[in-house]
Amino acid sequence: MQPGSGWIWEVCGSRQEAVVLKEINVKPDPPVPGQNLTVYARGIVNEDIEPGTYADVVVKLGFIRLLSRRFDVCQLAEENDAELKCPKKKGEYEITHTVELPREIPPARFNVHVNGKTQADVDLMCLDLNIDFGRH
């Protein structure tokens, strides 16, 4: 479990998945609604990531499910002009990406769960995030 000022992340899988995160940092810390959020992540890609890879994301506020959606990882990277695009070969990678957070995010604690599969049906990753927007 890796703490930040207003968030905690934890790898929830076996660490044998296609992508294993080693480090995540955000600025500002804690995140602030209506401001840009820059995310730095470092991890290892154990299996090639190609089109067809997907991530399932579930966002909850307490026990209330706010979002449950499947994302095409390669398409999402392309649409958001992400630093890493598909295909991605095995190796260690670092990325930095900035997004604008909506001003309307309420002052509350959100739980985010991410998992998925590669195009070859290998577990992609398992990640749990706990983000507290009540700390700003």
What is the helix tally?
Answer: 1
Beta content: over 45%
**Strand arrangement in the largest pleated sheet:** 1-2-9-8-5-6
Question: Rg, please?
Answer: 15 Å
Number of E-state strands: 9
Could you list the spans in which at least 5 consecutive residues all have pLDDT below 50?
A: none
- Our count of domains comes out at 1
Provide the residue-averaged pLDDT: 91
Order of helices and strands: EEEEEEHEEE
At CATH's second level, what is the architecture?
Distorted Sandwich
How is the CATH topology named? Ganglioside M2 Activator Protein, Chain: A
Main beta sheet: strand number and arrangement? 6 strands, antiparallel
Q: Class by helix and strand content?
A: mainly beta
**What is the level 1 CATH name?**
Mainly Beta
Note the overall shape: globular
Helices and strands, with pairings:
Elements: E1 2-3, E2 7-11, E3 19-27, E4 36-45, E5 54-61, E6 64-72, H1 73-79, E7 91-100, E8 109-117, E9 123-132
Antiparallel strand pairs: 1-2, 2-9, 3-4, 4-7, 5-6, 5-8, 8-9
Keywords: Lipid transport, Signal, Transport
Family: Belongs to the NPC2 family.
Subunit structure: Monomer.
What can you see in these coordinates?
Monomer. One of its GO terms (biological process) is intracellular sterol transport. Catalyzes the intermembrane transfer of phosphatidylglycerol and phosphatidylinositol. This protein has a single domain (2-135), classed as Distorted Sandwich (Ganglioside M2 Activator Protein, Chain: A), CATH 2.70.220. Helix content is 5%, strand content 53%. The protein has 1 helix and 9 strands. It has a 6-stranded antiparallel beta sheet with strand order 1-2-9-8-5-6. The protein has a 3-stranded antiparallel beta sheet with strand order 3-4-7, with no helix packed on it. A hairpin with a 2-residue loop joins strand 5 and strand 6.
